[in-house]
Amino acid sequence: MNLIYRIFKVSFFIFLDISGILLGVFLTVLGLAVLFNWQVTNWMGWLLLIIGICAFFLHLGHYFNLKYMRWLFGNNYFIQK
Questions:
Q1: Closest by alpha carbon to 25, among 56, 54, 71?
Q2: Which domain holds residue 52?
Q3: Has residue 8 been placed in a domain?
Q4: 41 DSSP 8-state letter
Q5: Where, by residue number, does the polypeptide cross the bilayer (predicted)?
Q6: Is residue 54 part of a domain?
Q7: What does the longest C-alpha to C-alpha distance in the chain come to?
């Protein structure tokens, strides 16, 4: 049971980080498309761009265990692998 739990936990967090990185890429591209005046207000484009960049760097930092995540959230930050 413990082995199954550990496999599920690791695969879940890997899936979560990869989907978060892809969400960040999607929102960044969508935000840039909106900023190029594709029928949506400019403030929405800036908001999507900022959210996308933040999501990308948050999940990228968690997946690769980068230093800025420990600097922002401490050594024992909110989601552990």
A1: 56
A2: 14-73
A3: no
A4: -
A5: 12-37, 43-64
A6: yes
A7: 53
